Amino acid sequence: MKINRSAVSLTVEDVASSAAFFSEHLGFREEMSADGFVSLGHPDAGLNVVLLRRGLEVLPEGFRDQHAAGLILAFTVDDAAGTETRLREAGAPITMPLRDEPWGERLFQTTDPNGVVVQFVEWLTPAEATVEAAAEAIAEA
């Protein structure tokens, strides 16, 4: 099997507000749309984000009233700190500030108007993670 492209479909109440958030703050562009539907592509992500309005008949009957919840849409970036600064300055809500995890993950989260959590991750080398963890421990002491 050859997979040519990937997409994630998210059911939201207000397709337009999520589409505007992904376009304005994250650099996605509309590729297709219809009433209650938009497919957004990104030149670097290799992934489309498809937004579907709650209640659409294209959704399986048991899922029509659900909305995107309990998931985190994560993107790997080269500069998490710079990305967080840019989004904060652009007015995007930072719902989890930048942090370094001991296993070498630097991350932060923002949330779109429909509650879709978007996480940005930068993978640190083991040496970077150790140095950062030591610096944080010293700062907290």
What topology does this entry show?
Layout: E1 6-12, H1 15-26, E2 29-34, E3 37-41, E4 47-53, E5 72-76, H2 80-89, E6 94-100, E7 105-111, E8 117-123, H3 126-140
Parallel strand pairs: 1-4, 5-8
Antiparallel strand pairs: 2-3, 3-4, 6-7, 7-8
CATH level-1 class of the largest domain: Alpha Beta
CATH topology of the largest domain: Signal recognition particle alu RNA binding heterodimer, srp9/1
The first-to-last residue Cα distance is 54 Å
The side-by-side strand order for the widest beta sheet comes to 1-4-3-2
Helical fraction: 25-40%
Describe what this molecule looks like in 3D:
The protein has 141 residues and is α/β, with parallel strands linked by helices. The chain has two domains: 1-68, Roll (2,3-Dihydroxybiphenyl 1,2-Dioxygenase, domain 1), CATH 3.10.180; 69-141, Signal recognition particle alu RNA binding heterodimer, srp9/1. Helices cover 26% and strands 36% of the residues. The protein has helices spanning 15-26, 80-89, 126-140; strands at 6-12, 29-34, 37-41, 47-53, 72-76, 94-100, 105-111, 117-123. The strands form two sheets. It has a four-stranded mixed β-sheet, with helices on one face. A four-stranded mixed β-sheet has the order 5-8-7-6. Strand 3 and strand 4 form a beta hairpin. The longest helix is centred in the C-terminal third of the chain and has 15 residues, at 126-140. The N and C termini lie far apart (54 Å). The mean pLDDT is 87. This is Glyoxalase/bleomycin resistance protein/dioxygenase superfamily protein. Pfam families: Glyoxalase. Residues 2-123 form the VOC domain.
